[in-house]
Amino acid sequence: MTDRILVVGAALYAEGRLLAARRSAPAHLAGRWELPGGKVDPGEQPEQALVRELREELGVDAKLLERIPGEWPLGRPGYVLRVWAAELISASPEDVRPLEDHDELRWLTPDQLWDVDWLEHDRPAVTETARWHAARN
User: Fold this and answer.
1) CA distance 70 to 59
2) In terms of residue numbers, what domain contains 36?
């Protein structure tokens, strides 16, 4: 039996827009879009991992609001994605820059969510994120 490896993602919102990050690596993911985040390290809580990943990937601090319902299998056996809604607390949207594994960021309004080519495993997470956001706005 394969141990599950938890990957956390952020539905990072600012001014009603969701942040999408375009992968620059690895090659088979490059050019596709995802919610920023990464793997949970051994002994780390998922929420701690997500805050750490946002600092490493984007150089920002974020406040986690709540977990988006659902869990989604990723392209590698044993990997699963969980997503938390979050908001920026240390920067304005214009100050957010890709630092690792991404070459472009976009802040998407609700009607622009499907204007980018999301990775397959992020699509159901984005759908649930949109439902979560619509229910609160």
Assistant:
1) 27
2) 5-136
